[in-house]
Amino acid sequence: MKDTSFKGFLTYRLRTHQFLTIGKSWMLNENVVFAPTLAFRGVNHGEGNIDLNFNFFLYKKLWLGLFFRTPYGPGFLLNYYVTPKCKVGYSYDTGLGNNRRLGASHEVSIGFDFLGQKSKIISPRFL
Questions:
Q1: Predicted confidence (pLDDT) at residue 6 exceeds the cutoff of 60
Q2: Domains of the chain: which residue ranges?
Q3: What is the pLDDT of residues 18-29, one digit of tens each?
C-alpha cells in the first residue's frame, strides 16, 4: 500500500479490488426472461460485499428486479425501453437493522444506444 497526502488535506491508499460476477438468463416463455446474477466485490482480502439479484425482462420492454446487498439491505429496480435506442430507469434501496440509519437511496437513469445495433444475446450485466 502506498500512502500519499496533499498538503495535509487529502490522504488516500491504493488498494487492490476484486470483482466477480456470475449470471444466467432463462427464457421462461416468449414474453418473460429470468436473469439472476450474483456479484462479489472485495477490497484487500476481506472487506467487500455480495449482491444477489433476481431480474425479469418482460415483453422486450421492461426490466423488473429485486436485489439484496450484504451487509446493507434490499432494493428494487426497473428499466423501461421508451424506444429501441433509449431507456429510463429507477432503483431504490434501503438498509436493514443498524444500516437503516444510513437512509434510503433513489437512483434515476437514462440510457442511450448510439450504435443502433442490438445484441444477439441477453446479458444480465447490461441491465
A1: no
A2: 22-116
A3: 899 999 999 999
How many CA atoms does the CB half-sphere of 38 hold within 13 Å? 1
Q: What is the C-alpha separation between 60 and 84, in angstroms, rounded?
A: 9
Q: Which residues fall within 8 angstroms of residue 93, CB to CB, at 6 or more apart?
A: 67, 69, 72, 73, 74, 75, 76, 104, 105
The pTM score is 0.74
Phi and psi, residue 66, nearest 5°: -120, 145
Q: Which of 32, 41, 44, 33 is nearest to 72 (CA)?
A: 41
User: Quick one: pLDDT at residue 45?
Assistant: 67
Q: What is the pLDDT of residues 40-87, one digit of tens each?
A: 999 876 778 999 999 999 999 999 999 999 888 999 999 999 998 899
- Please give the grid coordinates belonging to residue 20: 466477480
For the chain, where are the alpha helices, taking DSSP H only? Answer: none
Supply angle C-alpha 78, 82, 87, rounded to 5.
55
Q: What DSSP string describes 83-101?
A: ETTEEEEEEEE---GGGGG
